[in-house]
Amino acid sequence: MWKSIPPCLRRHKKKLLFLGGVVGGIAIMNTYLKRKFIEWEAQKTAEIGDQLKRSSHFEGTMMTCDNVFLTCAPQIRQVVCKNIDVNQVVKQVSTNPPNKIQLWEELKILVFSQALGEMYAQCMLCILLRVQMSILSGYVFMTRCTNNTATEQQQKYMSRIEDFMLNGITRLLTRVRDAVEKTLKPVKLQHSVKLQEVENFILSIQNTIFAGNFNLLQDVSCYLMPASSSSASEDDFLENISLETKDVIECQDFTRVLQLCIDSGISSLMDRLAECYGILSDGRNEFVNPNDYSAPFAKLIPIMHNVFCQHNPTEQGSLVHTLLQLEPLNNFAANIYEAFSQKDV
Fold this sequence. Notes:
Layout: H1 5-11, H2 13-83, H3 86-94, H4 100-143, H5 148-158, H6 161-184, E1 192-194, H7 195-209, H8 220-224, H9 230-234, H10 236-249, H11 252-280, E2 294-296, H12 297-310, H13 319-324, H14 327-341
Antiparallel strand pairs: 1-2
Helix pairs in contact: 2-4, 2-6, 3-4, 4-6, 4-10, 4-11, 4-12, 4-14, 5-10, 6-7, 7-11, 11-12
Subunit structure: Interacts with PEX19.
Function: Involved in peroxisome biosynthesis and integrity. Assembles membrane vesicles before the matrix proteins are translocated. As a docking factor for PEX19, is necessary for the import of peroxisomal membrane proteins in the peroxisomes.
Transmembrane segments: 16-33
């Protein structure tokens, strides 16, 4: 029996070699595929872990951004009231001076400039905070830099929000006031207006702000971005991140989202004006729909000013909270963060 095995092996030598090659190849391929599967599995696990870290980091960034905006909202009110001082004119009107009509005309411009100026400033600050913090957080996540130099650079970058608060809002209020005066100056104080007509005035003011050589949407970076400083030009990080921020601010997506924010602001402002018309119609014995009620423009002005002063900019239901929950704005911030958190910096 054993003697027949060697001749059998010699006769089937090629077949056995081929079979051995096939079995060996399968074994090698199996080992290779197992190793590749383990590597792929480890890579996917790392990617999922990285995505979870990125998601958690972004959520923390947005919470910080929300808190900063809620802190800045009352400061916006202070800046607006300081630059557009209605109380001084109100005091003069209360003394019944000879130029009372002229003062009321001025009061008409100031009250609308205050309300609209605060609304535009809130919209612009909210989107600016979203952009800056998304870019900076993306950089931080990518580089993992936490040394003193990096922290100082990050603080300098975010401190440019102060420039908008101190200078940008002032320039914005000048632009808004000019547009308000151009639109409302022809409107007589005794002219009886409905809520819809007031909304048309506000939309006309917006069209004026967005038109001409000083189009707010086209020149928005002039209001939001500070002038280049020597410290920024000497620091590569600050110079690069400032240029990238300016690129984001000047892109079409930014303009589209800012327009959506302003639309929400006008809607919020119209809710306040409907509240004013509700107060004006309270003296009637029967229910009157605020949309159907008309009142002399002069009667609307003091009530609108009182509603503006009594309204807390950070209360629930205010424009501030509406902006924080605006989905296109948050999606825009998420896209910015995603881009910069994966960027080779």
